[in-house]
Automatic annotation (TrEMBL), chain A:
Belongs to the binding-protein-dependent transport system permease family. CysTW subfamily. This is ABC transporter permease. Keywords: Cell membrane, Membrane, Transmembrane, Transmembrane helix, Transport. One of its GO terms (cellular component) is plasma membrane. Its main location: membrane. Residues 93-302 form the ABC transmembrane type-1 domain. The keyword Ribonucleoprotein does not apply. The lineage of its organism: Bacteria, Pseudomonadati, Pseudomonadota, Alphaproteobacteria, Rhodobacterales. Pfam families: BPD_transp_1. Gene3D superfamilies: MetI-like. It is a multi-pass membrane protein. The chain crosses the membrane at residues 39-64, 97-120, 127-147, 181-202, 223-245, 281-302.
TrEMBL record, chain B:
It comes from Rhodosalinus halophilus. Gene3D superfamilies: MetI-like. InterPro entries: Bact_Polyamine_Transport (IPR051789), MetI-like (IPR000515), MetI-like_sf (IPR035906). PROSITE patterns: ABC_TM1 (PS50928). It comes from the Bacteria. CDD domains: TM_PBP2 (cd06261). Keywords: Cell membrane, Membrane, Transmembrane, Transmembrane helix, Transport. Its main location: membrane. Belongs to the binding-protein-dependent transport system permease family. CysTW subfamily. This is ABC transporter permease. The chain crosses the membrane at residues 14-35, 41-59, 71-93, 105-127, 134-157, 177-201, 208-226, 238-259. The keyword Transmembrane applies.
Automatic annotation (TrEMBL), chain C:
InterPro entries: SBP, Sperm_putr-bd, TAT_signal. Keywords: Periplasm, Signal, Transport. This is ABC transporter. It comes from the Bacteria. GO terms for biological process: polyamine transport. It is found in: Periplasm. PANTHER family: SPERMIDINE/PUTRESCINE-BINDING PERIPLASMIC PROTEIN, SPERMIDINE_PUTRESCINE-BINDING PERIPLASMIC PROTEIN. PROSITE patterns: TAT (PS51318). SUPFAM superfamilies: Periplasmic binding protein-like II. One of its GO terms (cellular component) is periplasmic space. It holds the Pfam family SBP_bac_8. One of its GO terms (molecular function) is polyamine binding.
Length: 312, 274, 371
């Protein structure tokens, strides 16, 4: 998963092998290229049909208007104007970005040490650890969310424990039906999406680099900051994007655990297609949300590559 | 052995953290079996008393089994097809230098970064325009869109470990392309294929949002569970089923791990360069 | 998972690679070729598209006797969602809307009138429930066969919530229990209940004044609400654990909680509860029109009625279903042998236009989000 950005390297590796083919190399090369496209074609065609057509419809629809049961198909920007005028949509989008951002940061921070532990400190049974860390996710997500209710609830595990120790007299009410409940649950649910890419990038680090750093007199922390952390950056970025992007549009977790203040933009989009019955508005909000997500994701990618460039 | 060097020395703090992490990871999930034995239809403390009635009722609930069966079918079909698509794509991406490859790959990864609700709604609109009735096939179609990028992303690192000269040698020996694939390529990449099959199956098996928009009369398990959340009567049976699934996956995973260890090697080592 | 066993076998050299690839290939082919159809001959049966909780064999005893098995079920969480899905092209035999949505469901053009001659129980159906606004198709046939009716009111914990004076909708606006009150998330219930609380007559609900007064009541209520939810399970669990002191629910929540030993009561607010009737409609392209009528007939039967009253606490449209129960039992459930008594004592939802539905839903979503 961490290796989305990697094909470029592979190309370079594959290139020299083909150089020495001489005169008929060119023909062969073109033939090869055709074969390459041929192999790529099934997946490409399928994805194109599955993405482009529905998205074309979605974009078109965002310029239409709903009138009762019918859709008025004359072009208008009213939906976009409405989305920018009404503060509720901005608030919901900002809140969604904040909540999934918080969940993403928490997940990556909490999972990094575990990935590090498995990559460097587990010598026998690495697979066992990886399986142990991903096994909980074989139970239904919906039921896990429900299970969190019993942990965070009014007389749930945390409140009961705190009350029996005597730390609090009244159950803490902010635990459930709040933004924090959504953030905690998302962080828990997406943990494997952080652990696996970070683990893969750590596992790839050449140990001799670490030894070299130690030989140069770096302490463990300095070594970590100078060698391990920068080299595991691709894993961290992959984890960040893999968690952040899908969670922005989540509506199940906020619906079940969020309470009135935990509503996210996904809930609003779902309502537009459901109860509110304004599909064009739902399409508009969906597109605005995707643009916001794309901006944040690009900022993360560009920002980290700048940082990387400066470091080296 | 590098494993014995001072860099890989064990750290007590990290070990402690790892154990705590596992506890927090498992704590909420272990409440599912706990409440599946609770003599109340409400999942709330205090516990009401021990019962195995939910398990008995679970066995006799044809709808739930039908939903489970549907989920397994959709998951298997999704896993096999998306992995097959992924194998071709990963091979093309790693083996050939194709103009415009970067954008094409980026495009195929798009579903990874599109919120599922949008994907679900967009496909639903398309299906209704085309007049395709909703069924498990449409759910599978939606899941294929979600899972194919995951399959490609999982398989690319595996194919990168592949030495192209091996394939060329096989081709020079007169083997055809398919035979070369099965004899030369496949043995190197199959851990990636297994990983991809498992990953895509798991994603499809638990996917709710897209399935919700694209399912017809036959429900998948997450849709069944979502509907049962509305009326608590059936919920404990769902908990019983979840506990059984959890137990079965534990047993199967550890059994296979044990078997593989007898083969004296670790199973799949993601990302480990050859 | 035997894939992994195979893998282990390959590694140990017990299985040749070729044999392994062949197995894998075979498995792949088998999976792809496997029809994505349930083992049961689903396509033969009719499909009932209904609320979660009605997808149970108990309501289809006569149907199962006649056809060997209950119909196929597919469920929804809200009737608007169901209509959306059918408008997107989803075809079923029978669906399950409520009276307030009836004219809009009819206007969608997706349904056909019910041939009442095919229903053996039609003669016992309470005529008052058939005679709803917008229910008459050509030839005097109904669009919707009434099935269940009930109320939306306040369910409260008798041991936690101290009622001041009479039971009233004010209970859900009571700042003593701020943060311990729950509400249904659909405007289809909450908007109408708030209108009752705000004193808006249902005849005026679509006027600008009525709209603003109702919205204001909902805005006032919002800070006190701990959770708005579509699933009654959430409300019931929170009431069972004491997290909520009172919540807006339908009849069945109180009945189920009481059956589980939780001290709750389904209030009779002095302003009157919200009352509703839900029923069955046949899709115009229903693949099994005959079976569709059998589904409806089964739901209208006395057996189904007994189950609805006893286990869910809802009213049933077949008047003979009530004979088995004493007046006392029915009163305890908030029901009566004379449904008009209940329906008219409460506030009966009146159908509205699609524009109004969109408007109140949009406004209510805003209010829930804090605007």
């Amino acid at each position: 998963m961490a290796d989305i950005a990697e094909p470029a390297q592979a190309q370079q590796a594959a290139r020299p092998a083909r150089r020495g083919r001489g005169a008929n190399g060119r023909l062969f090369y073109r033939h090869e290229r055709l074969r390459g496209y041929g192999l790529l074609m099934p997946a490409l065609l399928f994805m194109a049909a599955g993405i482009l057509i529905p998205f074309g419809i979605l974009v078109t629809m965002s310029f239409w208007t709903q009138t009762g049961f019918d859709i008025d198909t004359s072009f208008t920007l009213d939906n976009y104007a409405k989305a920018f005028e009404q503060p509720v949509y901005q608030t919901l989008i900002l809140r969604s970005l904040y909540m999934s951002g918080a969940a993403t940061v928490a997940t990556v921070l909490l999972c990094y040490p575990i990935a590090y532990f498995v990559a460097f400190h587990v010598h026998r049974g690495k697979m066992l650890w990886l399986i142990l860390l991903t096994l909980p996710f074989w139970t239904s997500y919906l039921l896990r969310v429900f299970a969190w209710k019993t942990v965070l609830g009014y007389n749930g595990v945390i409140n009961s424990a705190l009350m029996s120790v005597g730390l609090i007299d009244q159950p803490l009410e902010f635990l459930l039906y709040s933004q924090s409940a959504v953030i905690i649950t998302l962080a828990h649910a997406w943990a494997p999406f952080a652990i696996l890419p970070i683990y893969v990038s750590l596992e790839k680090i050449d140990r001799s680099l670490l030894e070299a750093a130690t030989d140069l007199g770096d302490g463990p922390w300095r070594r970590f900051l100078r060698v391990t952390l920068p080299l595991s950056a691709p894993g961290i970025i992959a984890a960040t994007l893999l968690i952040f992007i899908p969670t922005v549009g989540d509506y199940i977790t906020p619906a079940l655990l969020g309470g009135p203040d935990g509503v996210m933009i996904g809930n609003m989009i779902q309502m537009q297609f459901g109860r509110i019955n304004d599909w064009p508005m739902g399409a508009t909000l969906a597109i605005i949300m995707m643009i916001c997500v794309a901006i944040v994701a690009l900022t993360v990618i560009v920002g980290t590559s700048r940082l990387k460039a400066r470091a080296s | 052995m590098k494993g014995d060097s001072y860099i890989d020395r064990s750290s007590r703090t990290l070990t402690l953290y790892a154990v705590l992490f596992l506890i927090v990871l498992y704590l909420p999930i272990l409440f599912l079996p706990l409440f599946s034995f609770n003599d109340s239809i409400y999942i709330a403390f205090p516990l009401q008393g021990f019962t195995t009635a939910w398990y008995a009722q679970m066995w006799e609930n044809p709808q739930m089994w039908a939903a489970l069966g549907n989920s397994v079918k959709v998951g298997m079909a999704t896993a096999v097809i998306s992995t097959a698509l992924g194998v071709f794509a990963a091979k093309a991406i790693t083996r050939y230098r194709l103009p415009g490859q970067g954008p094409l790959v980026g495009f195929m990864m798009l579903p990874l970064v599109v919120p599922l609700i949008i994907l679900g709604v967009a496909i639903l609109i398309l299906m209704s325009r085309l007049g395709v009735p909703l069924s498990l096939y449409t759910v599978t179609l939606g899941h294929l869109l979600i899972c194919t990028p995951f399959a490609i992303a999982t398989l690319i690192p595996r194919f990168e470990g592949l030495d192209p000269s091996l394939e060329e040698a096989s081709a020079d020996l007169g083997e055809n392309i398919w035979w070369t694939f099965w004899r030369v390529t496949f043995p190197v990449v199959y851990p990636g294929i297994i990983a991809s099959l498992l990953l895509t199956f798991t994603i499809s098996f638990d996917e709710f949002i897209v399935a919700f928009f694209l399912a017809g009369t036959e429900q998948t398990l997450p849709i069944y569970i979502w509907n049962q959340l509305r009326f608590p009567r059936e919920l404990p049976k769902v908990l019983a089923l979840a506990s059984v699934i959890l137990l079965v996956s534990f047993v199967v995973v550890f059994l296979s791990l044990w078997l593989t260890n007898r083969g004296n090697r670790t199973l799949v080592q993601p990302g480990k360069d050859q | 998972m035997d894939v992994i066993d195979h893998l282990a076998a390959v590694r140990r050299g017990r299985l040749s690679r070729r044999a392994f690839t062949r197995t894998l290939l075979a498995a792949g082919v088998a999976t792809v070729a496997m029809p994505l159809r349930p083992a049961r001959a689903q396509s033969d049966g009719a499909t009932f598209f209904t609320w979660g909780g009605y997808d149970i064999p108990e309501l289809f005893v006569p149907y199962a006797e006649k056809h060997g098995a209950p119909p196929n079920f597919t469920t929804f969480g809200g009737s608007e969602e169901a209509l959306t899905k059918m408008r997107a092209g989803f075809v079923v035999d029978v669906s399950h809307p409520c009276n307030q949505g009836l004219p809009r469901w009819v206007a969608s053009g997706l349904f056909q009138p019910i041939d009442t001659a095919k229903l053996s129980n039609w003669g016992d159906v309470m005529p008052e429930l058939i005679d709803l606004p917008g229910n008459e198709a050509e030839g005097g046939l109904p669009w919707m066969a009434p099935f269940d009716w009930g109320q939306t009111s306040v369910t409260y914990r008798t041991d936690i919530f101290e009622v001041e004076g009479e039971e009233s909708w004010d209970m859900l606006w009571d700042d003593r229990y701020s943060g311990r009150l729950g509400s249904l998330a659909s405007a289809g219930d909450a908007w109408w209940c708030a209108a009752i609380k705000a004193g808006v007559d249902f005849a005026d609900i679509a006027t600008e004044d009525g709209f603003q007064a109702t919205a204001a009541a909902l805005r006032e209520q919002r800070p006190h609400i701990r959770v708005y939810t579509d699933d009654t399970t959430t409300l019931e669990q929170a009431l069972a654990s004491g997290e909520l002191a009172a919540a807006m629910t339908w009849n069945s929540s109180a009945v189920l909680l009481q059956a589980d030993g939780v001290p709750v009561k389904f209030a009779k607010p002095r302003e009157g509860a919200l009352t509703w009737v839900c029923g069955l409609m046949i899709h115009k392209d229903a693949p099994h029109p005959e079976l569709a009528h059998d589904i409806i007939d089964s739901l209208l039967s006395v057996e189904s009625g007994h189950f609805m009253i006893e286990d869910y606490g809802y009213g049933h449209s077949n008047m003979r279903s009530f004979d088995k129960f004493s007046e006392e039992t029915l009163t305890g459930l908030g029901l009566s042998k004379n449904p008009l008594e209940i329906l008219q004592a409460g506030h009966f939802q009146t159908p509205q236009t699609q524009e109004f539905e969109t408007r109140i839903n949009e406004e209510f979503e805003m209010i829930k989000a804090g605007f």
